[in-house]
Design goal:
- This protein is mainly α and about 325 residues long.
- It has helices spanning about 5-35, 45-60, 65-70, 80-110, 115-120, 120-140, 140-145, 165-200, 210-220, 220-250, 260-265, 270-280, 280-295, 305, and strands at about 150-155, 160.
- The termini are far apart.
Length: about 325
Amino acid sequence: MEEPSLEALMQASLIFVVGVAIILSNLLIIATYLNFRGPSEVINYYLLSLASADLLCGLLVVPLSVYPALVRRWVYGDIVCRLIGYLEVTLWAVSVYTFMWISVDRYLAIRKPLRYETVQTKTRCQCWMAFTWISAAMMCCPPLLGFNKPIFDHEAFICMLDWGNMAAYTVTLSILVLGPSVITIVYTYYYIFSMMRKLRSGVPIHDKEYATALSENLSNPSHIMSFVLVMTFWASWAPYAGLRLYAVVNGPPQVPFLNFAVVWFGVTNSFWKAVVLGTLSPQFRLAARVLCLTLCCRHRRLPPELLGLDDDD
């Protein structure tokens, strides 16, 4: 085998670093929320679903691009290539739908502040997540079961399903995934930020109990945190979407490394969730501190005040 070029080594190394970062960050999110025994929010179940999808991407999708980046070809066979392409689409659909449910959750917290805890129960959210994973897996099946050969992107070193000969199904699937998700996200966050603006402007609310509950819910940092998570996801994939649209209209641009850059920039969205949570979620920081103290002090019982779980909090 020929010695890998410097370009190949750099690209393979970058993919490897992205994979390690995705795995470690999402393991941290999952371990942090599963270990936490204090009062938690329903939104944490959606965040666990997102972290699980991203962890699967880091474990099963990203590592299989490292060696092909070195040898500049796919070496694992068509079956594995087809499965990886299917997994990519399914995990992406799960993430899009989960962001939709997160936006609905935040909307209900503002729209029905007095009934939110009875409407958004943990069991109901778990059922929605199970339904999301099952429906996404089933909707993405036809290309996996078809006879079209999967496509290996020789610039980004990643396998994709061939959707070209299934134009009608591709358009239908895009509408089913993106249509309700984008519309719901835009409407719910528009409503949330409108209510924030009204409350700050001093618009009178005659029902004092409702006004108090609404004010408390609007002060929850989860609204801003979830909005930043959604925007980070779309911002990560926007360059890839823009490049694909440009290629359809004008043909593939002859710019070295551009396709590689936009594909893997999109994949890095699986890492940024840990950064956003650590920056904007006080509960995640508390839960992460509890996890660290639990791992470091297994031999003795930690007092509640040290963990931030005393009655005054």
